[in-house]
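Record type: monomer structure entry
Structure origin: computed from sequence
Chain ID: A
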Amino acid sequence: MPDSMMYYEDNFVILGPEKTEQFVTLTELEVILAKLLTKIQDCLPYDLQNIPTIEAQVQRLVKTACDLDCGDDGIWQWYAVRLEKP
């Protein structure tokens, strides 16, 4: 039976348009995504257009996606990572 620690998503690596990787916590990822979403509210991806708040949009992205096209701010990608062995 797999260790439940394998399913924790507390740490992420995020790649900005310049492809520099940065390790962040879930809270830090949410802050970054909220800032990006604030800038693109007028051209949101289709699956976010009916979600009324930025906070809810962030939660949707974290749970269902791994990238966000921000137009002039480039494409951002994030992936859950495990920093310790279970």
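Annotation 1: Residues 4 and 59 are 22 Å apart (CA to CA).
Annotation 2: Strands lie at 11-15, 21-25, 67-69, 75-81.
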